[in-house]
Structure formats: C-alpha cells, structure tokens
Amino acid sequence: METVNFGIDLGTTNSLISKYDNGKLEVFKNPLGLKQTLSSAVAYRKNKIIVGDKARELLERDALNVFTCFKRKMGTSESYFVPNLNDNVTPVSLSTLVLQELKNFIHSGEQVEEIVITIPSSFDTIQSNATKIAGENAGFKKVYLLQEPIAASLAFANQGELDIQEKKKWLIYDFGGGTFDVALIEIDDREINVLDNEGDNFLGGLDIDNLIVEKILVPFLEQELNEKNLWQQFKETDNKYQKLYYELLFKAEEAKKELTIFENVEIEIDYPEEDIYETVEITRNQFNNLIAPLVERTISFSKQVLTNNNLNSSDIERIVMVGGTTLIPYVRENVKAQTEIIVDTSVDPTAAVGIGAAFYAGSKPKTIKKSETIIADTDQKENIGNNFQVFYEKSSNDEEELINVKNTNKVSGYYRITRLDGGFDTGMIAFDKDIFAYVDLLEGTVNSFELKIFDKNQSELYSSRDIKISQGKYNVKGQLLPQAICLEIDDIEYGETRLEAIFTKNSILPLKKVIYKTASKTIVKGSDDLLQINIVEGDDNGLPSSGLTIGFIEISGKDLTEDLIKGTDIEIEIKMSESRDIHVNVFLSLTDQEFKNTFTPTERYISRSKIDKDLYVVIENLDKELQNHGDNYELLSKFKKIRDNLIELQIELTLLSDNDTTDKKFSIDNKKRELINQYDLLTRHVILDEEISNYRRIVKDIEYDIETDELPQFKERLDNIIKDERKYLNSGNKYLLKSKIKELESLQNVIFNAKDENYVYTFMNYKFNSEIFTNGKKAKKLFDEGDKAMENKDYKALKFIVINLYNLLPDEMKETKKEMNNKNKTGLQ
User: Fold this and answer.
1) Which residues are registered as beta bridge partners of 87?
2) Which residues on adjacent β-strands are paired with residue 388?
3) Does 737 share its domain with 776?
4) Are 625 and 595 part of one and the same domain?
5) How does DSSP classify residue 492?
6) Three-state SS string across 525-564, please?
7) Cα–Cα–Cα angle for 206, 53, 11, rounded to 5 degrees
8) Judging by DSSP bridges, how do beta strands 168-175 and 318-322 pair with one another?
9) Measured on CA atoms in the order 279, 283, 288, 293, is the torsion positive or negative?
10) pLDDT band at residue 237, thresholds of 50, 70 and 90?
11) How far is CA 264 from CA 207, 267, 278, 279, in A?
12) Which of 434, 675, 722, 746 is the most buried (most CB within 10 A)?
C-alpha cells in the first residue's frame, strides 16, 4: 500500500516540508541557503514574485510590496493591495505561493500529488477549508489537514526514547508565530489519543513584535517626529509612515530573537525622510514585562484544558513546548512556575510540527481507487457481512501482531491473509470457530494486509485490503472536532430557535449521522415560504447567533412538487470529512424530493458594526445582571470583569480606523466571542440553578401531595420521570431540564385534579384578589356561586367555577405559550 509520506507545516512566520517513508525521515532544505525552514513571506518585484527568506529581507527596502503573517487572515474576506501589481491578493493566493515554493525543496524531482498540511487546532471550519483550497491551488490533488498539536506530539513521541508502561497525559503547548494552541493528549505504549484542546488564532509571536513597536519604538518616534497617535497612523492604509511601520516590525522580530540569548539589544532606527538615525535599547527585563499579559493568557488556556477535564497539574506528566515563541526564556519559566508541571524542551520547536506531519503522512494511505472494496474502520473494528468481525491493533512496536476474526454464526470454510508487499502469506487455512492469526510486520512502516474468506468449496465469499498496522511508530487515534456542529431548530414551546448538537465537541473525525425532524410549519407549493437548514459551528447550549454558520440550505415553496405539511417527517444526513468538509442531504418524504449540498466555505466577513452591536447588547445585558444580583458578590465580580473587558474591546474598536491594515479587527472579534461565551456560560448557570431549584421544589411538592393525600398510584409515575435525575441535572442543558419540569408539572396537575377539594385554595386566592379580573360583574356572580358551593361542600361545582374565573384573568396572568412567527421559524422541530 502506498502512503502519502509528505507533510507540510504551513506556518505564520516559517514553513517546512518533510517526508517519512519506510522508516526514514527527511526534512528537506532550501536549495538556496540550505535552511530547512522557509519564511512565509511573498514579495512582488516588477514582473517577479519572490517567496521565502529573500522576500522577508525586502521588508527593509520595499515593505509595501512584501506580505507576511497572512495565515492569520485565512478564511476571511480580507485582501492585500500590491502597489507593484496595482491589484489585490488574498491570504489563500499568498499561501498557495508558499506551498508551491516548498515543493521546489524536493530535490529528487518526485511528483507529490497528495499532501498533509498542518493547521492550528483552534482553526474553525472556514479557516480549515481555506487552507485546503490553498493546497489544491498549489497543485496537490488531495490535501489532508492535520492539527498542529497532534503533529507536534507525533514528532516528540516518535523521535524520543520513550519507555511508556502505562497511560500518561501530556500537554502540548504550541506558541507559534501567529497562533497559540494547547492540547491534552493521552499516550500509552502504542497510540496517542487527543482528549481536548483550547487556543487563540490571534495570539503569537507577531503580537509580541507589535507590542515592541507600539510600546517602545512608537513613544520614542513620537518625540522625534513631534507626532501624536503615531501607532494609529502606522496601522492605516496609505499613510506616510506605513513603510516605516513594516521596517520597524521586521527589526522588532529580530530584536525579540536576540533577547532570547542576550540581556539587552539595540534597535537601529533609520528614517532618512526625517533625518532620524538613532538607536533604542531594550532590556530583557523590559521585554519580559511587556509580554507578561500574553504569556498569562496562554497559561490561562492551559489551565482551562485541565479544568475542562477535571484534572490537576499532578495528573500531567509533562508539558511539551512547541513553536518558535517558546524559545523565549520568560515563556518557559512562567509556564513551569504557574502550572507546576515539568516543561520538556527536548523537541526542536521550529521543526516539530513539520516533522510530525511527515510521520502522520507516512501512515496515511493514498486515495484508494474506486474499484477497490473498502470497509470503514471504526475503533479498530470491521464488520464483514453479518458473520464476521475483525479486531487488530492499528499500531504496534512488535515484530508480529494478532488479527482476531470473530466467527459470530460459526460458519465453516477457509481464510487467507497476505501482506500486500508479498512478504507474508498464511496460505489457505480451514476454520470453523474464531480465527486467531499472527502476521509478520515490516519495521518502521505501515503494513497492509488482504483478508479473504472462502466457503467449504473454496469459493470466495469476501475480500478486503483494509487491514493496516503501523509498526514501530506512534499513530494517532484520530483528529478532534474543535467545536460542536449543530443544527438550528425551532423550539415552539419557548417561541425561539435553538441549537441542537449533531456532532459534539472533541468527537473523532470523520463523522456521519442521520437525524429525523418534523416540519414546524406548512410550506405551500409555489410560495416564498422557506425551510432553512442552518449548520452552525459552536456551543450547542449557546445562542444560534453566537455560532459560525458553515452550511446553509434554503428550500422554498417554489422548489416543492407539492405542499410540505406541518408535521411531515424530514430526514437529514450529515457527513463531515477529516478535513471538515460538510455534506448535507435532506430528504422530504411527503414530496419524495432530495436536496443536497457540500459546503467548503473559505471566507467569512467581519463587520465592525456587527461587532460593535454585539458588544453593546451584551454590555447592556450585563448592566441589568449587575442590578439583579446585588447580593451575590462572587457572581457580580465575574460579571463586572467581563463587562470591563468588553468595554476595553469597545475602545479598541473605536480607535480602529476604517482602513486598518492589520488583523486587529479579527483579534477583537475572537476576544468578543470568547467573552460573550463566558457571559453566556455564567447566565446559563444562573438559569440552570433556578431551573434545578424549581425542579427540586416541584418534586418535593409532589412527594408531599402523594403522601398527604394518600395517592400511591402516582408514585410509580413520579419515579419514572426522575429515574435518570443525575444525568439531566448535570447535563448543563436547560432545554432537557425544562422538558422534565414540564413532565412534573403535568403530573402535578393530574394529582391536583384528582381531588376536587383542592380547588378550595385556588378559589379563595382568586376571591382575595378579586380586583384583577377583566369582567368584575361576571366575576362577582361566580364568587357568589362559589360561596354556595363551599357551603354545600360541592367541590365538583367549585372546580368549574374556578375554571370560569381563570378565563376572566388578564392575558398576561395566564400561562400562555409564546407564539412563534412563521417568518422566524427555520421550519424544523
């Protein structure tokens, strides 16, 4: 079996290409200069395009025609204007040029059609698809995406002399040039399993470079130039200092690198336009104070991963440091001090991701021809017809491995297992029970085997070539889904739409699911009414608007062959590939119609006004929360901290000019979503706490009524409702909890109605508040009739009087279901 073999680390500041084949690892070097990394930089010089280190060096001479750090804008609608072209280029097109240049590193001239490209684990689906498109545009026919922390863990595990006897947990701390990721992994003697991850796509070495310019160089230059708001001017398009800004950014990066070795450095500022030739000294202590908030943020992410998984520092064996920014001594020292976990710096931080990509590619089969019969492998198990199940280890350090075939229906016949390179063959072996066959493994590669099953007459019943065992190198169980994939549905009960999880966060890709819904409204054939299938990436307990739409199908009445009646069954099949393509297939049983689409969105537009509106709304809501929870000081403190941070973002957004050229807008949007999620989580917990209290009160009341009124026939119904109590009380899902409360309220009503004398209390309460009724004259008559019924102890008559009084209540005092406008409905429930 042929494997992909080639892997690329497409980095924010540097990129790398490597190969792993038959136990041999090779990191390719640039033919010019023999460096193993390539600067992720592109320069446009008249009719020439320069990619790599030479392009980056031009930042000092022709900054406006040189582009770097475009990875941070992958998946956005942003573009860069190139003066020498008098045209715009996109982050995808710039990434394509870097990938094409990396192909030139392969000195053997080997044609690479399939490739593994790494992405940050916190990349959303749109950013991932943009990276995939860049790879395809670079000439690769098949692109597989691999999350960077996974790649780094593969490099560390496969290059280190590990002796792991029992499962261990590590944190992979990946602080790169443009992004930060931290992943929790579990490793044993055979396999790596990724458990969870957190990160920020706008937190990296570039932010440190900008801090040096903003906080140290700009104040100095403002005095020299007699300018104000110079930092603001630096970030705008077509400003006279734009070239100077990019030159200073280049020098800031160089100074940052030098400060990892020296206690102080000097930055030379040459600005002949204003006759400025000065040097600015930066000490390491000054530098450390400058970057402290950024480092603190990465540590917060690391601690959050532990909190998410109910782990302590003592549960983690080591933190593996990856990414160029981890070379900074202050980063390593503070991570170790604050986490109290051993910090492992043995892996090359600048090459680990690229090397890990090659290890992964060396175990990744090339695209298999359509003519071959494939059996999907799920959790190391294959279903072969209805008679057999095959079990085997996907990774092994041994020279041979066991393949176990469960013969569930005790079929008799023959089997044969061969290694596809021809080096191993069991021959024809008879069986009438389970099959236990040891197969020989080639060292340091992926071993592929063919399994054939025959009947007693040696006629072939089945064959498969999908048994693959990687020998001698660690493999990964699978890549995690960084955010839940949800479907927006109508919650008719509460008159709003909500998200329902299709695939939960941290599910292992690829994924497939068929779900069944019903139409929540009637869509008339030929009308403009819509059935909307909105696939959202985000927290299924959050608001639909807080997530990211990654797939949207609209089915209008004009698309229908006949009316879609409310209550009709709707079948939705959703598939997600390992590279996070979304395939959606909608089947309407009533009209016998099928609608399908494949979503590979590559751009998202960030609106400043939308960010500003979101910030305003949440700050306004927080002001209300601060008034409503005056006695809960702990909660107030959390609300206030979120509010203060949101106001800071508001200020940052206000200071951002309309023609800002940096990725600050996207960074603000990222932080905004993170803070809104924190707010949503806090308010969700408050709502949940209230609902849980309500739930427990109703249960207690029902138990009291059953015991006091001697109604044992209702005890079994109560027990059935609350039997999985722990599950839904701990689910964090308010909708699940509300549905249980609704069941309890229904039972409570049944118990109440079981004894007519219960209406005495309700009647007396209505009488005490007689002024609330809409028709006082009619209410008075009913009260007189009620008094007579009370005298005669005619509780059945009293019951109907109470019902009539209820109908005279103002609408706002009745328990009415919130109606949902048809236009606001998705059409699914």
Assistant:
1) 82
2) 384, 407
3) no
4) no
5) T
6) CCCCCEEEEEEEECCCCCCHHHCEEEEEEEEEHHHCCCCE
7) 45
8) parallel
9) negative
10) low
11) 20, 10, 16, 13
12) 675
Q: The tokens 């537009």 sit on which residue?
A: 605
- The dihedral through the CA atoms of 325, 326, 330, 335 has a sign that is positive
Within-domain flag for 253: no
> Which domain does 431 fall in, by range?
381-472
Distance CA 74, CA 178 (A): 12
Contact assessment for residue 387 and residue 192, using Cβ atoms and an 8 Å cutoff: no
> Token pair 């023959």 is at which residue?
414
Of 354, 49, 297, nearest to 173 by C-alpha is 297
- Beta strands (DSSP E) in 214-369 are 264-271, 276-283, 318-322, 343-344
Contacts of 810 (CB under 8 A, 6+ apart): 772, 774
Closest by alpha carbon to 313, among 335, 329, 292, 294?
A: 335
The pair phi, psi for residue 487, each rounded to 5°, is: -115, 135
How is the chain split among helix, strand and coil, in percent rounded to 5? 40, 30, 30
In a domain, 182, yes or no: yes
> Is 821 inside any structural domain?
no
Looking at residue 601, what is its pLDDT? 66
- pTM of this prediction? 0.72
Strand partners, 39: 14
Whether residue 544 sits in one domain with residue 406? no
Alpha carbons within 13 A on the beta-carbon side of 575: 7
Q: What mean pLDDT comes out for the span 595-599?
A: 80
Map residue 321 onto helix, strand or coil. strand
